[in-house]
């Protein structure tokens, strides 16, 4: 397989197996998915089991009250399917309603930025269409972890403690009490290695499994969410929950040097990575070369500037996705790149943009799945006794009526979480993803270029030192980023900063499938507690 020959020594070895593989940021969640594969489930069942387990064993990044997206390759069909399970704003929310409360900017925490959770609906939709096992069996490992408990791992514990200290100072009003009741141990923050359990979370997962999600969107859990929101002047109602359905979508793709790179269409930001690849493919890529690196950064800057200016609900975008992914767009934007760092402005359009997991089974089916509460634990709102930690995706809405992402009732916001998938000659290569807010398209771009341009294997592609454009000319790099490249970028006008916080560079997973032998090759993130469970 041509993607497996690489000139870079990886910190870990690529994992190789042939009967099944699960790659994610938590060993216990990966094992949950592998257990389901061994019980006769397929890659979709394994993805659901892993995703549900992640709501328990990595609550610092996702939860039952978050959103999800998936790209599913069904090998018998030779088809890639897309699922957008991001939830809309409440039907009762509006700029006028917020103005009446004296709010002129969407808050980060509390009941206001809560949008309808899409994750449970994603599990149900995937299970109904492609799963082999019932949800009661698929969610059983997650229920066990929540009921019996598990020891807190290193990165998880550090993120948990950081959030706890921050919330203790800032989330001091009554609506946040249930967060501390749920995510504390004896009134204090949990320690690394300490057992944590959440019986309410287990009970909620059991109800979701037994009713195929109806308890969450139309039954007992919906009533509890509705009651809590009314008590604390929130906008989400049981009607918002009952009317929600995830959307099956046609994935969008671009060809990058013989490989097709697939993303979920807007409202997700995956298109940003594709736009950057379309721009950069006009450059000559050389290994550890300053001109190559400079043009990569400039391509991301141009693509992200356009993504933030134009991406929202697809029907409300001021420019269509075909234009942004066109050859003409890529050529025009590439022509703007010079030898020095630019301050990008949005493209002049013609008149008229977490936890990630990848799974694979012996039959060639593969899933790229991402799920998030946003900004760590999300809104800080937990529905008492349920373990349901609600997301704060509404924070990304604008209250500027001229902005494409302007807040409207029942609207989905610009969404940061994006699953990726690679194919070649209409055959699956495999799923990939990099978590981490606005790092995600930049991580996708870097993983794809490392893979295709430099033939790095999955683990090596993830191990490579990363950079992130932060805005204007500012670039953050990891501490082990080569110093000679840092100095050369500075000479080209980039404002380079060595990051203290390594978590800003995302956390990725990759599974590639050899198209001739069916053998699976997996890489997992060295920046977290990541692991690959293989069979």
Automatic annotation (TrEMBL):
Q: Name one Pfam family in it.
A: G_glu_transpept
PANTHER family given in the database record: GAMMA-GLUTAMYLTRANSPEPTIDASE (AFU_ORTHOLOGUE AFUA_4G13580)
Q: What is this protein called?
A: Gamma-glutamyltransferase family protein
The species this protein was found in? Solibacillus palustris
